[in-house]
Amino acid sequence: MAQFIAFNKDVEVNKQTVLSIVNSMEKGKETRLGILIKNGVNPDQNEWFNQQNWLNAFKDIAENLGDMNLFLIGKAIINNAQFPPIKDLEEGLRSIDVAYHMNHRVNGKIMFDPETGKMTPGIGYYKVTKFDSKNKEAEMVCDNPYPTKFDEGIITQVANKFKPMGSRVSVDLDTTKEMRKEGANSDTFLIRW
Fold first, then answer.
1. pTM, two decimal places
2. How far apart, in Å, are the Cα atoms of 132 and each of 85, 89, 188, 191?
3. What would the DSSP string read from start to end of 137-169?
4. Which domain of life is it from (predicted)?
């Protein structure tokens, strides 16, 4: 699936996560809130929102405010959405998929069960396909309906928060692999520190 198209029409996203759009930066807060409301996502009225409506708001932001806003919203996710406990960079990167499922539900059921550690499929994933601490590089495949720059922002913020002391992080889209902006199912990011 390409970006901005929900995999399942019954998937919902929680209010905490939705607020990352509003709280990503002070400037333009009212504009972003207006875009959410215009797309049927009013954080003052509900706790859960249709994912497709939220994706429509992302598309609206991309078209009217630009990709940098998507990147900053992604960076704000770790401060707004629920995340499991994390102790290092590898755990941080791997936790993105858990957090993704923790903050979405389908037919009223949250898509991650903390007691069993099982995730309900149907929304895609964030998968660490390589983690090499010796060479200080990792690879993550993002197969989900969210925009590329949003995912880049999430990965960048998580990597910066949990990087080894004194490291400098870079996160780059691997343009040699399939890309959602060209209609593919996934993006692959290269993370170095």
1. 0.95
2. 21, 11, 16, 10
3. EEEEEEESSS-HHHHHHHHHHHHHHHSPTT---
4. Bacteria
